[in-house]
Specification:
Number of domains: 2
Strand content: 15-25%
Structural class: alpha+beta
Number of strands: 10
Strand order of the largest sheet: 2-3-1-4
Oligomer: single chain
Bound molecules: protoporphyrin IX containing FE
Distance between the termini: 28 Å
Length: 480
């Protein structure tokens, strides 16, 4: 970290959009591009930031909207892409190592081994060195996505890029993702951008330097190094773009199996009281109710989005459609994990104010998540449909190593933040092997039930570390 940075006032029109504010369109297309002709590709970067919509789709900025646009368009560039655009070795050396190494080279840190290894990634990520740009189009229907894609291909004389492939995502059933959870609820809110009165949150507002280079971070007096020249690095951000396949049938089968185990367990009743008013209200069998309890404990929220921290015994005590109150909680009064297990996915990714080993790390590794499902909704009547489904996600931060990788490696994979989970993996997306995996369900009266035999439910099908340059940076690349 460096101790100084250029911290001028933020001009939101100079930033790429989708960083501080999510677009919330219904569909997404990620185009994976390789530079075909350097000069034309550089000139195209000038065209997409020049303001003339007749020439090319324009980069969507963070400038506040009067009317929401019918489509949004943004790009992220890999280290190989910057090199292909002619960025010198000297400038590349000013970028952090994890970015210049690229995601595939960091596979072990991210749990990308076995079936998730980069050598097994699917096209267009099967040759990571060729992935130069991920251009993301957001719209509410496929016709708009197609139109913008055609314009991306047609502009730059049709010579700037080779389209290596595309990955489409679409919302089904609101913000629901595969595995049946409501997602997209917790996001950092930023100092100077969000009004705390609109977003009451037990967590502090995040400084802009959490996600933008050149701004104050959550570490007092310290700034992430800004790639040089400053025009290139300032107001940029990094994204870990991930294509994560989800084994929904495997997940549901595990819930079935583990609910039977809990039903037979002598302390299972401590997780779900025999006279639970919710079970009576819901009409669920006790086995099916235990499946829901377990799904909630693995995530930290009931599948409808209601957090265990606020409603540990039932999912129907709060309005699940209103995201603001659903984010306003902490784990400080739940140190023993009786409400939300210390090993739950959400608590591992963001321990909020919990007591953790890395005491300075509370609130410092926050990630902006822009994810959307791909593939059709799972149909329980066809568990073996053979269709790949999962999550396409941009995980944004100002420092990939200190935020995305630190969360993934220290907290999700190793559980270093809490001695009670050290040595276990994240129950939802960890690289679990039934031979030695475990997940602990703390009980209200003390003690815990330890479940074993969790398989891996999420595998990596592709991805890339991307730099999201500001608009002046894109113009700088165009001119260079
Ligand atoms: C297929 C993979 C994944 C699934 C199904 C999944 C699912 C979820 C769900 C259902 C939530 C709760 C909804 C919310 O609070 O907005 C959540 C929260 C979260 N997830 Fe994931 N997730 C996945 C991958 C990841 C990855 C790879 C990371 C980061 C390395 C991550 C980081 C987070 C964070 C930071 C939160 C918010 C926690 C908080 O602020 O309280 N997730 N995830």
């Amino acid at each position: 970290m460096s101790a100084a940075a250029n911290t001028g006032a933020l001009d939101r029109a100079q930033l790429q959009g989708n960083i501080l504010r999510g677009y919330r369109h219904k569909q997404v297309r990620h185009l994976v591009l390789a530079v075909a002709e350097r000069a034309t590709a550089c000139a195209w970067l000038g065209t997409i930031t020049g303001g003339d919509t007749t020439l090319a789709p324009q980069i969507t900025t963070e400038a506040p909207w009067l009317v929401k646009p019918d489509h949004c368009f943004n790009i992220g560039i890999t280290a190989q892409g910057l090199r292909a655009l002619g960025v010198s070795a000297e400038v590349m050396a000013s970028f952090p190592d994890e970015f210049t190494d690229g995601m595939a080279a960091r596979a072990l840190k991210l749990g990308d081994f076995g079936n998730s290894a980069p050598s097994r990634w699917s096209a267009p990520f099967d040759d990571p060195a060729l992935v130069h740009v991920v251009a993301t189009i957001h719209a509410d229907d496929s016709a708009h996505l197609d139109r913008v894609q055609q314009r991306v291909q047609a502009t730059g004389n049709g010579q700037a890029w080779r389209v290596l492939g595309a990955r489409d995502g679409a919302n089904f059933n609101g913000d629901q993702v595969h595995f049946g959870y409501r997602d997209n609820i917790s996001q950092p809110r930023f100092v100077g951008i969000h009004d705390p009165a609109d977003y009451p949150d037990a967590q502090p507002l995040a400084p802009l330097g959490t996600v933008l280079l050149g701004h104050k971070t959550a570490f007092e007096g310290l700034f992430w190094p800004v790639p040089q020249p400053a025009v290139l690095g300032h107001n940029g951000s990094f994204s870990a773009f991930r294509v994560l396949a989800q084994d929904v049938a495997g997940f549901e089968a595990y819930l079935d199996h583990a609910a039977s185990e809990l039903l037979a367990h002598p302390q299972g009743h401590e997780l779900l009281a025999p006279d639970s008013a919710w079970v009576a209200r819901s009409g669920l069998t006790r086995h099916n109710a235990l499946r829901e309890v377990l799904a909630a404990k693995m995530c930290g929220r009931w599948r409808n989005g209601v957090p265990l921290a606020l409603s540990p015994d039932a999912p129907d005590t709060m309005d699940p459609t209103h995201p603001v109150p659903l984010g306003n909680f902490d784990y400080q009064n739940d140190n023993d994990g009786a409400r939300c297990p210390y090993g739950a996915h959400m608590r591992r990714c963001n321990p909020r104010g919990s007591t953790i080993v890395q005491r300075m790390a509370n609130h410092t590794r926050r990630l902006v998540r822009r994810g959307i499902p791909y593939g059709p909704a799972y149909d329980p009547a066809k568990p073996d449909d053979g269709i790949e489904r999962g999550l396409l996600g941009h995980f944004l931060s100002a420092n990939l190593a200190a935020q995305f990788e630190a969360v993934h490696y220290d907290w999700l994979n190793l559980g270093l933040q809490d001695p009670r989970i050290t040595g276990s993996n994240d129950p939802l997306l960890g690289a679990n092997d039934p031979v030695d995996s475990w997940f602990e369900l703390p009980l209200p009266a003390g003690g815990a039930i330890r479940l074993r035999g969790l398989p891996r439910f999420v595998s990596t099908r592709g991805g890339a570390y991307l730099f999201l340059p500001s608009l002046p940076a894109l113009r700088h690349l165009a001119a260079a």
